[in-house]
Specification:
alpha/beta; Rossmann fold; seven-stranded mixed β-sheet; 142 residues
Length: 142
């Protein structure tokens, strides 16, 4: 699997996350793949070196980490659409979707996927965000 980060949903928050990753030099811009239905809105990110597409499954096929940054009413459709690719590639899944619990996401994509919820704010674009991170406790067998 490549070292790419796929951001599914390049709206305000998803775009801000991409900006922060680029400005902070977390990874090379070409390792960031941002999706959006209307990719013309992503042209500024493309000009900075990020990859852009409207194909969520193509994006996750290249990613070791997938950030879901869609609106809450879109989550069912998006997760259902990518669940097979998630099962095949098993990237780390990070949700920044407001009000959607990890258990809810697991019920759609499967329990084998490692999932975190992260709540940054749009100041992440300038690396000034306060961010809350949560995960589920896993039962460890000895």
């Amino acid at each position: 699997m490549k070292n790419s980060i796929a951001i599914i949903g390049g709206g305000n928050l998803g775009g801000s996350i991409a900006q922060g990753l680029i400005k902070g030099k977390y990874t090379d811009p070409e390792n960031i793949i941002v999706t959006r239905r209307k990719i013309e809105h992503l042209k500024p990110l493309e000009q900075q070196g990020a990859q852009i597409t409207s194909d969520n499954n193509a994006a996750i096929a290249q990613a070791r980490m997938v950030i879901i940054a869609v609106k809450p009413h879109q989550i069912d459709e998006v997760l259902t659409n990518i669940k097979d690719g998630m099962a095949r590639h098993k990237p780390l899944l990070i949700s920044v979707v407001t009000g959607v619990k990890i258990e809810y996401i697991k019920n759609i994509v499967g329990s084998e996927i490692k999932i975190f919820r992260v709540m940054p704010n749009t100041a992440i674009a300038i690396q000034e965000s306060m961010t809350c991170i949560s995960s589920q406790k896993r039962n460890l067998k000895r």
